[in-house]
Amino acid sequence: MMKNNEFRKIYESYKLLIEQRLDMCLSGERLPQETLREAMRYSLLAGGKRIRPVLTLEFCRISGEPPELALDFACAVEMLHTYSLIHDDLPCMDNDDFRRGKPTNHRVFGQWQALLAGDALQAEAFNTALRANLPAERIVIAAGVLGGAAGYEGMCGGQYLDIIGEDKELSEDELNTICSLKTAALFMAACVMGCAAAGSTEEQALAAARFGALLGMAFQLRDDILDLEGSFDQMGKPTGSDIKNKKSTFATKLGIEKCRNAIESQTSLAKEAVDRAFSETGFLKWIADELALRTG
Hints:
mainly alpha, Farnesyl Diphosphate Synthase, 15 helices, 72% helix, globular
């Protein structure tokens, strides 16, 4: 049985692969619109945990193929995630000044360039996925999954509900809906896209989807706790933004203790989901436990 430090080494090796490929994706000869590419690179290469693309690589591996086969899909997921962060931080959305310990994109490049950088990263996410050196049917599946996670039935829909929910007392069901769209949808897509890269079975893809959805819910629950209890040094951004923006969250609705119990439950269910369809689940269980207890 692998130990935590061995899983950590696997995680770091995946991160390195992703960082190198992301850098390559936005490199090349100098362009007239070079500052736009600089704005894209500024946020895309600003660090972060790279959890979603790591999951893509691992699901490809446990579905029977080398993780490198899913690298373009993994980068596409991270590009889409980064676009959403750039737009979330804009003054017309959450109006945040810091992300990952650095000034947000619009604070450095201005609002209109940040808006275009996010737009271009969303387009480049699909370009990257569609250029993958994989069978066409696998690419089509992955692109469809990514599009579903991005649109009105995914992240954009979740962001819409989140914004119109400001200044309102939302029910737990309403919070679950927002989380399932805004946060969990991309976690789920990341996992399923790894399976798509490997040409996995339908049973495995369904298990990956359930794992991602549950992990995404646990991630958001932990995020809501950290917005109340965390610090700038831990989060890389000011905490208390949900209260500032008058948003209902799991933490304010349920309380910290119930949120912790829910995280434990969601994490346990996620681990059970992959156990039924895959034989090598140690790394996924480790990462689920790490996220459940994360401090940043």
